[in-house]
Amino acid sequence: MTKKKVFNALLIASLILMPFTAMADLGNVIAKSNDIEISMFGSLKTLPQFMTNVDFNSDDTRYDYIIDENGPMMNHSVRNEARVGWEGKGTNWDFLVILEADYTLNKVNVDRQAGSNNTSSAAYNPEAVTANSDDFGIEKLNFGYDFGPAKLNTGWNTKFLDLMTGALIYADDHPYIGATGKAGNMTWEALYLIIQDDVYNIRSDADADGYADAEDRAVGYDSNRLDWRAYTLRAGFDIKGFTLAPIYAFSNNEMRKADVHYLGLEGFGKLGKITPRFELSYAFGDQDVSGGENLDISAYAAFAAIEIEISKAVVPYVGGYYLSGDDDGNDRDINAYNGISMNQRYTPTFGMENAFIYRFIPVLGSNIYENNFQNLGSDPGYGGSSNGARGDAPGMIMLGAGVQGAITEKMNYKTQVMYFTLAEENNFMKASDATQTVGDEVGIEFDLQLAYNYSTHFSIGNTVSVFLPGDFVEDYRGSDYDDTAIMDTVELSWKF
User: Fold this and answer.
1) What is the pLDDT of residue 326?
2) Could you tell me the pTM of the whole model?
3) pLDDT at position 119 over 50
4) Region 420-441 average pLDDT
């Protein structure tokens, strides 16, 4: 054997043995129980997005951006959502762990730099760089133990009360402790949701901008001012394939000094070729405001839709939403409907991940995942995504229709049109004349989604979303806010 062959053989042997040597130094990982089955999975979504006039104005304005999970976006951005997860099952117990990084693709984010950029240019403006690197972590988590009659769960996996219908009350991934069970044809779930839990530091002379400095003196702590917790119970009855579910939720929103009860009812199921869905929700309670006043909350919301399966390739649907609005911002009650955390983006009928309306759109007062305008107004509300809904919000009426289906085994589509108006406009005045109320027509959105599945592990899609603003936008924001918003999203998706 030549010296070269001997050297190559030793090199290969060293490379093979090196990992075992390292493991011996670090110790061995040994499962303490042999009754655990663990599976691994993952996904990647790369979403180039092209946006035009998202503020309905051809000029640059303070509303000219939208926000999704990756942060703010303008003109063109590439959103990237990477996930890897594990599921485990043991005797009477299980777990789920999903790691996620969801950010705009740029050097700062992919190098995990958390807010800095490798540049020597003195003209560089670090505020212009989107950096969400610190957001990487455990996105979903659930550990459960099955006692037989009931199963105990804790974590922060996605939980929902009404996602299969209108998602008017709650569908999100806040931390929870809960229990589920089944009795005959009824399944039930009770949840204790920790929406927010922080200790507020009271300072005697905090800066006017709200940020404390070294000279500020702590004078005490408030354990309730920033808290928000919710308690829910859902019971689903299976009636020959049709689910009927009464819902109760109590929102103890200390951040907004509001105690709110929600009574809901949803129904859905396939009846032959027809799939009806409906949801009703009534919110009532009270909210304390400055001056020791107590405002009565009384608001309601509804959703209904029907799908008809003509064939696998043609499944038309029609339906709509109603959210009550406040008709008088100066009286002593609140009639605007605020859900705890609504999520119309992932509902079966009108839900579409990359539709325009399901983002935080400042010019419309809509929030991420929601399809309404309850962030419009000036009075603090009692719920909504990030607690952003308003007590004097205008409410919403949405009427829509669409069709979806699988053209082939690999190609599917979904297209829809939605018409939006305000339920109440009395609290909102025209930008040009503050003595007149605005028009109630918000606009029309058209969505078209196409996807081709090359395999079970990879697909390419595209969603085009067009929003034509109505007279409300021009009245409330100004005469220049009348341009059509267009958003085109390419969808590259891998999963294993």
Assistant:
1) 96
2) 0.87
3) no
4) 95
| pLDDT over 90 (residue 218) | no
By CB atoms closer than 10 A (0-12, 13-18, 19+), residue 384 is: buried
Beta bridge partners of 247: 234, 264
Can you give the chain as a three-state secondary structure string?
A: CCHHHHHHHHHHHHHHHHHHHHHHHHCCCCCCCCCCEEEEEEEEEEEEEEEECCCCCCCCCCCCCEEECCEEECCEEEEEEEEEEEEEECCCEEEEEEEEEEEECCHHHHCCCCCCCCCCCCCCCHHHCCCCHHHCEEEEEEEEEECCCEEEEEECCCEECCCCCCCCCEEECCCEEEEEEEECCEEEEEEEEEEECCCEEEECCCCCCCCCCCCCCEEEEECCCCCEEEEEEEEEEEECCEEEEEEEEEEEECCCCEEEEEEEEEEEECECCEEEEEEEEEEEEEEEECCCEEEEEEEEEEEEEEEECCCCCCEEEEEEEEECCCCCCCCCEECCCCCCECCHHHCCCCCCCCCHHHCEECCCCECCCCCCCCCCCCCECCCCHHHCCECCCCCEEEEEEEEEEECCCCEEEEEEEEEEECCCCCCCECCCCCCCECCCEEEEEEEEEEEEECCCCEEEEEEEEEEEECHHHHHHHCCCCCCCEEEEEEEEEEEC
Compute the Cα dihedral for 431, 437, 440, 441 and give only its sign: negative
For residue 273, is pLDDT > 70? yes
Measured in whole angstroms, how far is the alpha carbon of residue 211 from the centre of its chain? 29
- What are 391-406's pLDDT values in tens digits? 999 999 999 999 999 9
Confidence of residue 219 (pLDDT cuts 50, 70, 90): low
Query: What is the rounded CA–CA span in Å between residue 278 and residue 319?
Result: 9
Which residue do the tokens 């530091």 mark? 201
Confidence of residue 463 (pLDDT cuts 50, 70, 90): very high
Please answer whether residues 388 and 375 qualify as being in contact, where contact means their C-beta atoms are separated by less than 8 angstroms. yes
Quote the mean pLDDT of the chain: 88
Between CA 436 and CA 430 the distance in angstroms is 6
Taking the C-alpha atoms of residue 362 and residue 332, their distance in angstroms, rounded to an integer, is 28
Split at pLDDT 50, 70, 90, the class of 21 is very low
54 near 445, Cβ under 8 Å?
Answer: no
Render pLDDT for 319-365 as a digit per residue (tens, 0 to 9): 999 999 999 988 889 999 999 999 999 999 999 999 999 999 999 99
